[in-house]
Amino acid sequence: MAVCTKWCEFKFYTRLLKGTYQNSRTVSSSARVTSCAHGEPERKHKKYTNTVALPRTDFPLRLDSRKRIDRDNYVHEKCEFSTLYDWQRKHVQGPEFILHDGPPFANGKPHIGHAINKILKDIIIRQKLLQGYQIHYVPGWDCHGLPIELKALVGETNLSAVTIRKKAEQFAREAIADQKEAFRSWGVMADWDKCYFTFDKQYVKNLLRQFHRLYEMDLVYRDVKPVFWSPSSRTALAEAELEYNPAHCSMAITVRLLMQRVPDAICSFIPPHIASVFALIWTTTPWTLPVNQAVCFNPDLSYSLVSIDGHSGEMYIVASELVEMLQQKLCRRVEIVTTFPGSSLGGARYIHPCRSEQVQPFLPAAHVTTTKGTGLVHSAPAHGPEDYLVALEHSIRIECFVDEAGCYTEDAGPALQGLSVLSEGNEAVMTLMSENILHSEQLVHSYPYDWRTKQPVILRACCQWFIDTNAIKQKAIEALKTVKIFPEHGGSAKSGGGLLAQLERRPYWCISRQRVWGVPLPVFYHKTSGTPILTESLINHLCYLLDEHGRDFWWTLPLDRLVPEEVLSEHAVSLDELEKGQDILDIWFDSGFSWSSVLNGQKVADLYLEGLDQFNGWFQSSLMTSVALRGQAPYRAVFVHGFAVDAEGRKMSKSQGNVVDPLDITHGGQDKKSEPAYGIDTLRWWVACHATEHSNIPVSRNVLEASAEAVHKIRIVLRFLLGTLHDLPSDVDVNSEPML
């Protein structure tokens, strides 16, 4: 077995040494006495050596790279790690310890992050085994989703849905085989014969049934809402599928909107020579102005009517606290004419910035602040969650002029139709509004990107399926109070506070995706009304079809095979009135229900162990689904580790050329002098020493050399123990009680 986790064996040898060392010396002395009694003359050079118990062993002090690799292969073959798990399930009678495996994506070769995660898990379950626990650890893989689908589409165009699914499945299976081989080679003890996969029939059937349960409980619903949308992937994304680019550059503009009706509170302060009064807004998304539907103000703030040097015959409305900031930005003197309460803006109206025939309202909103901008917020309900909520409150019909590709539709007008809102469309809007832009600047800020395509995303209103997080959130927060988070760091973002904070600010969970490699969202719709058709009898029928026709049944069978007569009669509809849904389920919904499949829906895991990023991913999705359906967290404790970084503390990435392959650590790189084969023991030791905190995990030549040296010191001790016990009889009984 690998040295780095064999402290238990070390204790075993120590105990053995203490208990049998004297016996060993006695046996040796007796043998020598017997030999002399029989008159056998001792050779002169053994006169003294035979009186001393000197260590004798063939165990080598050092191994070169080639022998180290051979030794690892030999240990893996002879120690039968694969049977250890089965043995302990049958013979260990202690309490069960459940470590539930978070499924890695089946989208590539094993990497250093896999090594950190799997070896940490192995260290824990081996410790628990030596403490007398029976271990439950079933590895799994997340087999669906955009990352795998994109890999299947490389170099391909115009493929059918079924072809894409076949290619994606093949790619996932190949990745699983590669990863599984590596995980086993690292000495990980697990139920390798009963791994779970999110594309297995039984797993998919469970997902269909659980989705229906949530639907029956009114915890999932369909609605038009602004969601994160990736134009590059043409699908909605969950928060966990985003990464934020801190160096994103946006064009921020200050725009004037012509008032059509000014507040009564300021009418008497407007001189006769003033021809126009404008409201000033500030936005970093000029492309959303064509779909502007209101301007929001905060009724608790004070606003000012101001004049600006160089703008004769005009006055402007801005939050009083931001007048000085406006003056600095424009580099012009801004003079306050009068100040009035924000509540006075309630009846005001303005002319739409892009459609002069359209008049829009001013609406009160609590999300308006004076931290930046002008204190008046341009509202586009199709492209912002706060704007959306304001629109709902005031019964405003939501308009969206952006299609799946992130381009303007014909509703935006001929000058904008077909233009990408993130590039030429944004520029076109600013050109159209140039006369009303008082100031523009480049703003570098953090902005969400698609985690796979590395391209910016937008917020876009479309019809999607959601989990009602508001109905679950408070129960989840209460359930989280009973969960232990390790390592303990108080309430910081890197401990339980991180999960709690993510949970508290999550507005809703969009669980539908517009792709094909995934579990079909099992819903049919009435063509006229759009009413969803989803019943228990339908789910039972779909599960039967899944068993009979395989996981592609949703895409291969005609509508009359998918919808049974029982469902048509139940809803009093004909087949011609229905259409099949085209969405699949979010992969975080897939993996978030792993507790339901792997733990049989009843057990609670003793431990979930994953990286920091899972606070916003698997930890949260598992918590939400478990609380929704059984009122408790799926885990009693959570252990969180950091990420591998290079010697300079930089995150590993292919573009920077600093990625370390775990295979290069164990087997050596191309240049064996600069990248020697350290072996699996060193890899495991490095993980044990450096990966047990939230902090990032350094991996470099110096760190690996230090780990190799530490393993060598243990090797010296073991060599001494083996040498000292070389003549120990093999039938000596050893205390069988737990060694830890």
TrEMBL record:
<dbReference type="GO" id="GO:0002161">
    <property type="term" value="F:aminoacyl-tRNA deacylase activity"/>
</dbReference>
<dbReference type="GO" id="GO:0005524">
    <property type="term" value="F:ATP binding"/>
</dbReference>
<comment type="similarity">
    <text>Belongs to the class-I aminoacyl-tRNA synthetase family.</text>
</comment>
<dbReference type="GO" id="GO:0005739">
    <property type="term" value="C:mitochondrion"/>
</dbReference>
<protein>
    <recommendedName>
        <fullName>isoleucine--tRNA ligase</fullName>
        <ecNumber>6.1.1.5</ecNumber>
    </recommendedName>
</protein>
<dbReference type="InterPro" id="IPR014729">
    <property type="entry name" value="Rossmann-like_a/b/a_fold"/>
</dbReference>
<dbReference type="InterPro" id="IPR001412">
    <property type="entry name" value="aa-tRNA-synth_I_CS"/>
</dbReference>
<dbReference type="InterPro" id="IPR009008">
    <property type="entry name" value="Val/Leu/Ile-tRNA-synth_edit"/>
</dbReference>
<feature type="domain" description="Aminoacyl-tRNA synthetase class Ia">
    <location>
        <begin position="90"/>
        <end position="696"/>
    </location>
</feature>
<keyword id="KW-0067">ATP-binding</keyword>
<keyword id="KW-0030">Aminoacyl-tRNA synthetase</keyword>
<dbReference type="InterPro" id="IPR002300">
    <property type="entry name" value="aa-tRNA-synth_Ia"/>
</dbReference>
<dbReference type="Pfam" id="PF00133">
    <property type="entry name" value="tRNA-synt_1"/>
</dbReference>
<keyword id="KW-0436">Ligase</keyword>
<keyword id="KW-0547">Nucleotide-binding</keyword>
<dbReference type="InterPro" id="IPR002301">
    <property type="entry name" value="Ile-tRNA-ligase"/>
</dbReference>
<keyword id="KW-0648">Protein biosynthesis</keyword>
<dbReference type="GO" id="GO:0004822">
    <property type="term" value="F:isoleucine-tRNA ligase activity"/>
</dbReference>
<dbReference type="GO" id="GO:0006428">
    <property type="term" value="P:isoleucyl-tRNA aminoacylation"/>
</dbReference>
<dbReference type="GO" id="GO:0032543">
    <property type="term" value="P:mitochondrial translation"/>
</dbReference>
<dbReference type="InterPro" id="IPR050081">
    <property type="entry name" value="Ile-tRNA_ligase"/>
</dbReference>
